[in-house]
Amino acid sequence: MRLLPWFRENRRDLPWRRNRTPYRVWVAEIMLQQTRVDSVIPYYRRWIKTFPSWKALARAPQSDVLKCWEGLGYYSRARNLHAAAKSICDAFHGRAPDTAAELRSMPGVGPYTAAAIASLAFNEDAAVVDGNVIRVLSRLFAFGGDTKSAAGKKKMQAWADELLVKGLAGEFNEAMMELGALVCLPKNPKCGECPLQNVCAALAKGSPAKFPVMEKKAKVPHITVGAAVTMNRKGEVLIAQRKQDDMLGGLWEFPGGKQEPGETIEECIVRELDEELGIKTIVGEHVMTVNHAYSHFTMTMHVHRAQIVLGRPRPIHCADYAWVKVPNLGKYAYSKADLQVVAQLQSRSAGLKKRKKG
Ligand code: SF4
Predict the structure, then answer these.
(1) How big is the CA angle at 183 (ends 178 and 189), to the nearest 5 degrees?
(2) Could you identify the atom of ligand 1 that is nearest to the CA of residue 196?
(3) In this structure, which CATH number among 3.90.79.10, 3.40.50.300, 3.40.50.11540, 3.40.50.720 belongs to the domain 222-357?
(4) pTM for this one?
(5) I want to staple 332 with a disulfide (CB 3.0 to 4.6 A). Which of 105, 152, 235, 252 is the partner?
(6) CB 318 near ligand 1, within 6 Å
(7) Is 29 annotated in the active site?
(8) How many Å lie between the centroid of ligand 1 and the Cα of residue 230?
(9) Which H helix or E strand runs over 134?
(10) Is the domain 3-210 a CATH 3.30.1330.80 member?
């Protein structure tokens, strides 16, 4: 097969391809789930610097782990990586399990990640089937079925197992993924540069971009959220920590929540702050509006100032709360949407300070 020589000539020099250890492979594979290589590179570098080993990661408080992951999305990946580090240090004496079967029992490790770690870190003959590989395989075999169905997935795995170069599994898997990332592109595959062009059924049919056959995507729901910047007399801002089991669990936010039918944003904020923290508030001026797209819904968040008129915050529907000076807000970890609010508050506060000095 011409794939491996092509890979040796064209492989990108990515940071996780240097000084390979099971820990580094694991971190990279988790970060690369549903995330582009370009976005992962700076996060990977910072992570390895901050937590150079399983031990360092296991010992770190969750707040530091989430702060280092802040902005990369899918935060359960960070929590699972942290849990895996603790388990490896406690139950495996600091050595990661080295077979795909054992790896699958670890937090956050599904069949794809287990095969990737087992092949790349331990050279086990396990074939990886990720989005890039599915695209390449469905074109090589001109597969007209649904690659997301159980039968389609089984077929993809069987083809990947069959093609796998035994004894060079890690290199083969990387080569397939690299081919999907650099040549067998979703819209305009560069078939003229492809080492597999002579054996590609989709190319022979003259319609490579038609594969894999895509199901029509369901419309993504949209939600509207109200959130509050609540200040006390000391000029501190109230932030709340999301519950561990919730989406974005462990991250901090400006308290608020989803607007109910028939509610104004102001009414939504008043109700949410009461339910979440047991405080009665009045809602003031609009601070900003943030639009954000998650994988399964989009969100518009309207942020207003609020003032407490009765009660003291209690963590009722949140894990914790804190009063924080604006310059110190950055010490906590937030989602991308709340990070925009932090940035806005900090730039306003810095602007005010400058004006006072001037
Ligand atoms: S020939 Fe074209 S469609 Fe076929 S695997 Fe190569 S890049 Fe993809």
Answers:
(1) 140
(2) 6
(3) 3.90.79.10
(4) 0.88
(5) 252
(6) no
(7) yes
(8) 55
(9) helix 131-140
(10) no
